[in-house]
Amino acid sequence: MNIIDQLIQFHRGEWFQAHDKQTDEQLRLYFETMVRKNRMIFAMQGDEVLGYAESYRLDYAQFGRLVCGEDIVVDREDVETGPIAYLANVHVKEAHQSSWPIKYLKLEFFKQNYTASYFCGYAERKKHRPWKIFKRQQLQEVITREL
């Protein structure tokens, strides 16, 4: 199975089946665009995707729209050069969630976006403070501590 098909299969997991109504063709176009724009990071074991991370590089206006609940249209917008590195989604197969793929994806996200001024992500499960925002030096310290 190729990488895009594996990503679609990941996306069709329990949570997404209940919350996301995108067709497989829409997902294929999205993932192909993200791969082409180098906004995907993969934790691979041979040809198998164990986990992946999606990220955008946003400008301040795009980030404001995102915070206000608007969508970022990756096939029509620049998601490669802004000063804000946004971690959109991270998925790791359940059997590997406490092993190397998580650390690898985190480190590669930082390396891929090293020139960004800010690093952020949103976690729906965290109701009190769902947004996490770090300056470059802060994130570097967090990652160094965890390695």
What does this molecule look like?
The chain is of the alpha+beta class. The chain has a single domain (about 35-145), classed as Aminopeptidase, CATH 3.40.630. About 40% of the residues lie in helices and about 25% in strands. The chain has six helices and five strands, in the order H-H-H-E-E-H-E-H-E-E-H. It has helices spanning about 5-10, 15-20, 25-35, 60-65, 100-110, 135-145; strands at about 40-45, 50-60, 85-90, 120, 130-135. The protein has a five-stranded mixed sheet, sandwiched between helices. Helix 1 crosses helix 3. It is globular, with a radius of gyration of 15 Å. The N and C termini lie far apart (about 30 Å). The model has no long low-confidence stretch (mean pLDDT about 85).
Short description:
The protein has 147 residues and is an alpha+beta fold.
Query: Which residue ranges are poorly predicted, with pLDDT under 50 across at least 5 consecutive positions?
Result: none
- Average pLDDT figure: 87
Shape: globular
Termini gap? 32 Å
Q: Could you tell me the CATH topology label.
A: Aminopeptidase
CATH architecture: 3-Layer(aba) Sandwich
Number of helices: 6
Main sheet summary: 5 strands, mixed
Order of strands, main sheet, comes to 1-2-3-4-5
Number of strands: 5
Q: Which structural class is indicated by helix and strand composition?
A: alpha+beta
Number of domains: 1
The assembly state of the depicted protein chains is: single chain
What is the succession of H and E elements?
HHHEEHEHEEH
CATH class: Alpha Beta
Residues in helix, %: 40-55%
Rg measurement, Å: 15 Å
In terms of DSSP E residues, the strand content is 15-25%
